[in-house]
Amino acid sequence: MRICVVGLGNFGRLHATTLMSLAEVKLVGLVEQDRRILQAAQAQFPGIPAWSSLSAAVAESDAEAWIVASSTSSHVEAARTIMRASRRVLVEKPIAESLDDAESLAPLVAADSENFMAGHIVLFNSEFRQLLAERQRQGPISFIDCVRHRPATTMKLFPGESPFHLTMVHDLYCVLALMNRAEPTRFSAQRHHTADGACDLALAQLRWDDGTVASLTASFLTPQGMPNDGFDRLEVFGDGWAARIQPNPRPLELWDDRARWPAALEILATPTASSGMLAEELRTFCRVVRGREPTPVGAAYADAVQVLRWLDRLEEAARST
Fold it and tell me: Cα–chain-centroid distance for residue 93?
């Protein structure tokens, strides 16, 4: 599979590094508007064709599929350019800055989303994939409890960002997959703010007609001394069964002058051997492009739009409480 990567920030380079190690992929192009970043990427990936213009790349590259890992503000236009050229695309989440922007892509997306996949690595985490399998075996869900805490310093790194959009969004995708795209009928939410007005805690509750409840907590509250990327926990309860995953941090602990958790996420990327959820996302994308499997639940265009709708409903509910 010949693939080109658009956007060469940290995540774009991680995509490129992972692609280099996959037997089913040939990395055939790099696209980055910032020439300084592009030059650095060319040094990291020598011999790979590179462009500063996406339009030129689409016209000149022989890539069969494209990965958009650029800034969110560029996602819609990049995806539009690629799909208009009848190419397949994976757009990392969030696929757009707003619901309206995301919906503007609808005329270009195939009915089964075979030409568009939303990138969301959490869906390809091995523990979560096993949880989905257990949910199929065990039966209906009564309650889902999602907790995603990040360091208090996150507010300084991402000023103005809400835990709803920055972190809770990951769990909303997981809930959508666990509930097999069923639409909630009730949304409620609350926020907590610091003394200077920054939002450091978001709480949400979703309810379905069958009585299922999902509770979600996302915060920027963990102190120094805890894992650098906070911690995540997801619990599911059904009739006579329950399950828990704790995918972050990974179960590797190190001690020197302090406790450390060097493997926060299930991602191992090297030019010769990659494993974990990003590698699995990319392998799945290749199978989707080849027509060997449908776009997974949670990764279709309609799923990404559905989650953006949920976020809008939760933000509205939080403002009214």
Answer: 5
